[in-house]
Write a structure and sequence with these properties.
The mean pLDDT is 94. This protein is α/β, with parallel strands linked by helices and 290 residues long. The protein has one domain: Rossmann fold (3-Layer(aba) Sandwich). The chain contains ten helices and seven strands. Helix 1 packs across helix 9, helix 3 runs parallel beside helix 5 and helix 4 packs parallel to helix 6.
Length: 290
């Protein structure tokens, strides 16, 4: 029987984050569902979550957190740590820009990285001092199949997830002496609202220069919508939430990477890269103590 964990999930107002907090609470864990604008646009879903938890006698709290704001992240995590030790941080908040890569402005690219890369970094920096003091903890970063492959019209999104993968894996090696694990979950295409909320590029002159190829964004998003409309189990986002629960409750060392759903060749990529990466780490460990 596993010991219940105190778990903080970012981006918990919708999609995989919302499914994950419910699944973890149902499994008996103490869950903090972090989201922006608790008194505004997310007030209804926050109230629904609290009512649902109370009706089912589950331990779940909603907390205000904007992963793009360092003060917000630090204040929320410090407040939680005053009463409870955070055992698991799930970096889930993310956005999925879709469209011609060149047509995304530098400001748009910065905004994507602010959520998808710097957001997890802010959360990790706030929680890790506490985990290191306790010499235990688990970081789960929600990446994507796009974190290991390059896809047309998803260049900015892929770049951000590739960066997250490198950040998370480097933490994996550096935190091992402290009894802390940093791991990645790589979902394939799953039915969430990421498709409907995908930011589009705004450089209209650039889009015009590509002619009909600028329609690739709509074609790609339409392809995903049609795939999700079929309702196959492999695209059910609940699968990702269930896998996260399994990883948290797993005994022994966890895999650095776990794919969920359509892997788009990632299992083969991960299997091929793993021995090369392992040999590199072994070689460095022979020269540098870490």
């Amino acid at each position: 029987m596993f010991a219940p964990k105190t778990i903080l999930v970012t981006g918990a107002s919708r999609g995989i984050g919302l499914l994950t907090v419910k699944s973890l609470a149902n499994a008996g864990h103490y869950v903090f569902a972090a989201m922006r604008d608790l008194q505004g646009r997310n007030n209804a879903i926050a109230r629904e979550l609290i009512d649902w938890a109370e009706e089912n006698d589950l331990t779940l709290e909603t907390v205000e957190m904007d992963v793009t704001n360092e003060s917000s992240v630090n204040a929320t995590i410090q407040a939680i740590e005053k009463d409870r030790s955070i055992n698991v941080l799930i970096n889930n908040a993310g956005i999925m820009p879709t469209g011609l890569t060149e047509a995304f402005t530098p400001e748009q690219i910065k905004a994507c990285f602010d959520v998808n890369v710097l957001g997890p970094a802010r959360a990790c920096r706030a929680v890790l001092p506490h985990m290191r003091d306790r010499r235990s903890g688990l970081l789960i970063h929600i990446s994507s199949t796009a974190g290991r492959v390059a896809i047309p019209f998803f260049g900015v999104y892929c770049a951000s997830k590739w960066a997250l993968e490198a950040y998370a894996e480097s933490l994996h090696y550096e935190l091992a002496p402290f009894g802390i694990e940093s791991i990645l979950v790589e979902p394939g295409g799953h039915s969430t609202d990421l498709v409907k909320t995908a930011p589009a590029p705004t450089d209209q002159d650039c889009l015009l220069g590509y002619g009909k190829f600028a329609d690739g964004r709509d074609q790609m998003l339409g392809m995903f919508e049609r795939m999700f409309a079929v309702g196959e189990n492999i695209t059910d986002a609940q699968n990702v939430a269930d896998k996260i629960v399994d990883l948290i409750e797993m005994k022994g060392p966890r895999p650095i990477r776990t794919t969920v759903g359509q892997d788009m060749g990632l299992n083969q990529i991960n299997a091929n890269v793993a021995p090369v990466q392992s040999e590199l780490i072994k070689s460095l460990a022979d020269r540098v103590k870490f």
